[in-house]
Amino acid sequence: MTDEMVAQAADILAAEGAEEDGIGARVLDLAGDELLAKRLREWIREVFGRVMLLDAGHRIHFLDTFSVYTSDRKPVRIPNHAEPIVEIATRLAQDHLRRGRKEYVYRIAEGSAPVRSALPAIEQGVSLDGAVSASAFNGIPAEAYPDYPKSFWKRLLGR
């Protein structure tokens, strides 16, 4: 995972008028792996949505963990820092905002779960201040994060 790969995937997601199938195929070509392509699409949108909502002045608390499911359908909470795309995409989105490229960020963010779930409240004038938002990814297996979840003993012993 590189900054350049995340930036290229973001450019694909930000392309105006692109159909979802075409976006998926282009990100897959870039990533070379279906799971990595899905992580890029989902996480870049998620992070850009968070950054957009915060930039718009909404004081939302985004949890520092996300939910995925194991292959036997057990839910697992994993720390955000386990996904390198989170840090890279956050820096990228913030950089685009600093450079005045709000439309770029918004085009990507509009497909995110945080924005889709917040939009009805925003449109009705409801304040989101103090709201808590959690991320969940049904199509990304927990096994994509082999170091997590760590058992109680591994966390206790720092391994």
Strands, helices and their partners?
Elements: H1 3-14, H2 20-31, H3 34-55, E1 61-69, E2 75-79, H4 84-98, H5 102-109, H6 113-123, E3 132-141, H7 152-157
Parallel strand pairs: 1-3
Antiparallel strand pairs: 1-2
Helix pairs in contact: 1-2, 1-3, 1-4, 2-3, 3-4, 3-5
Structural class: alpha+beta
Query: Strand content of the residues, in percent?
Result: 15-25%
What is the C-alpha radius of gyration, as a whole number of Å? Answer: 16 Å
Average pLDDT figure: 90
Helical proportion?
40-55%
Number of strands: 3
Q: How many domains make up the 3D coordinates?
A: 1
The number of helices is: 7
Poorly predicted regions are none
Sheet having the most strands: 3 strands, mixed
C-alpha geometry: globular
Question: N-to-C terminal Cα separation, in Å?
Answer: 23 Å
Q: Write out the strand line-up for the largest beta sheet, numbering strands in chain order.
A: 2-1-3
Q: Helices and strands, in N-to-C order?
A: HHHEEHHHEH
